[in-house]
Amino acid sequence: MSETVRVDDRGPWVMVTLNRPDSLNAFTGEMLSALRSALEAAGERPECRAVLLTGAGRGFCAGQDLSEVDLSPEAGAPDLGRTLETHYNPLIRLIRGMAKPVVCAVNGVAAGAGANLALSCDIVLAADSARFIQAFSKIGLIPDAGGSWALARLVGEARAKALAFTAEPLAASVAADWGLIWKAVADDALMAEAEALTARLADGPTVGLGLTKQAIQEATINALDVQLDREVDYQRRAGRTPDFREGVNAFLEKRVPTFTGRA
Ligand code: LHQ
Questions:
Q1: CATH number where 38 lies
Q2: With a 6 A CB cut-off, is 136 part of the ligand 1 pocket?
Q3: Do the Cβ atoms of 24 and 62 come closer than 8 Å?
Q4: 22, 105, 123, 184: which could form a disulfide with 194 (CB 3.0–4.6 Å)?
Q5: Which atom in ligand 1 lies closest to the alpha carbon of residue 23?
Q6: pTM over the 0.85 mark
Q7: Which atom, in ligand 1's list, is nearest to the CA of 138?
């Protein structure tokens, strides 16, 4: 197992922790590969029904480790596009495509690709002291790791452009007010709340939650008629799961449902 990414198996869910606290968990190539392996494993294991992503130490993630970028004359012109294709894009696609909830607990500063990794998760909680920084413009780059897409959709063009052009830190509470994240939480309550939420989701109707995730993501690009057809398809599938049967029976019997997450 990698030291830069810790994986804690909590039974029905896993906690994945970015673990290079001395560099605010900035991403090295090795760490990106380790994160991808950890998330792939979580996605593939049927017993794992939710994922919690967080960072060790005082930061969540400061984006790409800039000391790893080789700008020496011998290295020639850097191909950052290749880094995105090799590492970041597969990671973002993996999280968005995972048919189970991915919660992110942003425990401290989230900058560059670190901020946008957080925004690719399904539910984002952030400590009151956390900041989101689209740091890219400070080094002449553009928001990557899905950032241009997520920002434009979540907060609209006006705020997206201002955040990206200025690289001004956005406080967690403002990020929540703007709809960039789900909510800001007192620093000392963040992990307990994020873990309770992830555990609750892991106890949920996993197939239905996975289809809900897919439907809502597709809704941001589909026209209503297309989306109504999607809902027909997904609801048909959800309605055939044992969890639908259990949910209805539990309601009628006035008891708490026990979902299995099975298809
Ligand atoms: C770091 C980093 C870091 C290395 C803090 N690297 N060491 C994709 C494709 C390919 C290439 C390019 O990039 C990308 C995507 C990207 O992510 S580009 C954006 C990269 N990230 C940044 O530009 C953010 C750089 N960091 C900062 O601006 C600050 O560190 C923030 C605002 C995040 C936090 O500031 P402070 O709280 O004041 O902490 P600090 O700056 O003192 O950092 C603590 C340590 O972490 C420090 O090391 P040291 O040995 O001096 O204690 C930093 O050098 C190190 N660190 N970010 N990205």
A1: 3.90.226.10
A2: yes
A3: yes
A4: 105
A5: 46
A6: yes
A7: 23
